Amino acid sequence: MDKVAIVTGSSSGIGFETALALARNGYHTYATMRDTGKSGKITEIAKKENLKIEVLELDVDREETIKNSIKKIVDDKKRIDVLVNNAGYFLVGCLRRPVNEKISRLNLRPISLVS
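Above: the chain sequence. Below: its structure as tokens.
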């Protein structure tokens, strides 16, 4: 039985590479991202290397996408063995209060929601 992994923020960067690494190490990997239209590259690599990667929409700022993704994974696989909370938000420059609230909302709250 495959181990099951979910990686948030898998459309690029660390999340992309982590999802591939887990799949290459035998995990059935759910690569989640806000915009599944950006899944072409990871899907292409998965197909070429015969990796078990499924792409799901999961926007850490939209609770219903979190619930839907987790439900699908648990319905399909009955468990999640590894969770990589990678999705986040950052910005460079002067921080104002509304921006600080957005950073907290997108970087801290999802950890508890997805976990």
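The mean pLDDT is 87.
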